[in-house]
Amino acid sequence: MSRWKELPAELHPHVRQLIVRLRRLKDGSELSTRQLAARTGYSAKSWQRYLNGRSLPPREAVEAMARIGGDDPTRLLALHEIAVQRWAEGRAVTTGAPENPAATPADTPAKPQPHGRHLRLAVTAGAVVTVLSVSVALVLAVRLTEARAQLARDRDGAVATAPATWSESMVPVVYTCRLEQRDGRWYAGLSRTTDLLLSNTHVGLEVAEAQCLLRRAGAAPGDIDGVFGPMTRRAVERTQKRNGLVVNGVIDPPTWQALREADPK
């Protein structure tokens, strides 16, 4: 049985209860985090964050763990919905805490200020705001350039591993499909994988590759943004149904094969 780290003290009891249930299911499955990643499509690092209380697992991950551990997914998903609410409430309380009242200076009679001083203060404040705005714009531009460069490096030499998951801090990217046929299979120039599992909330070059192939097959996945969202899932389900595959909305090896065929049905 795993020796688990102590959960953060600030976790709500309902969130703590969900994580404890997930830990028990993992212990019962006797799977390592790498094996768990291979079975669920979520990376080993993601499961480490989920099971140590650093982030809340998505609904699909909880459902997958229930299937692996032989637990009732209905009860576990109901607990997950409550945990999501408590998690959001906890973040709102943390970010919305009031400032220390003691830091507010006591009211004192205001002394009349000369008109010239007021004008100088206004001009100075305007200059500070302008400098800050330009600085922020430059920082954002540099970070966006670095992010796009890193994505390009990953596309040129990365080895396919468990896909990342979406977060609000990610920089939006629009990919270009460069379709070409090799040895009777179609590729979009973003990934050559044929067996990586992709599902809801996954992001990256592999997702963009699948979106290009889905668009080629006429399944309309939406923007080629590398984000596995609802439109991409529906496009996958249509492709699976059209090719007589198991309709689960997950890009698995049979689905990859259907997408890369020269003449998909």
Automatic annotation (TrEMBL):
| InterPro entries linked to this entry | Cro/C1-type_HTH (IPR001387), Lambda_DNA-bd_dom_sf (IPR010982), Peptidoglycan-bd-like (IPR002477), PGBD-like_sf (IPR036365), PGBDSf (IPR036366)
What is a single Pfam family found in this protein's UniProt entry?
Answer: HTH_31
Enumerate composition-biased segments (Low complexity): 97-110
Task: Write down the superkingdom of origin.
Answer: Bacteria
Q: Does the keyword Transmembrane apply?
A: yes
The organism encoding this protein is Streptomyces cahuitamycinicus
Query: Boundaries of each HTH cro/C1-type domain copy?
Result: 21-75
Keywords, comma-separated and alphabetical:
Membrane, Transmembrane, Transmembrane helix
What name does this protein carry? Peptidoglycan-binding protein
Q: Which CDD domains match?
A: HTH_XRE
MF terms per GO, please?
Answer: DNA binding
- Residue ranges annotated as transmembrane are 121-142
- The UniProt entry's coiled-coil ranges are none
What is the residue range of the signal peptide feature?
none
Region annotation (Disordered) maps to 95-117
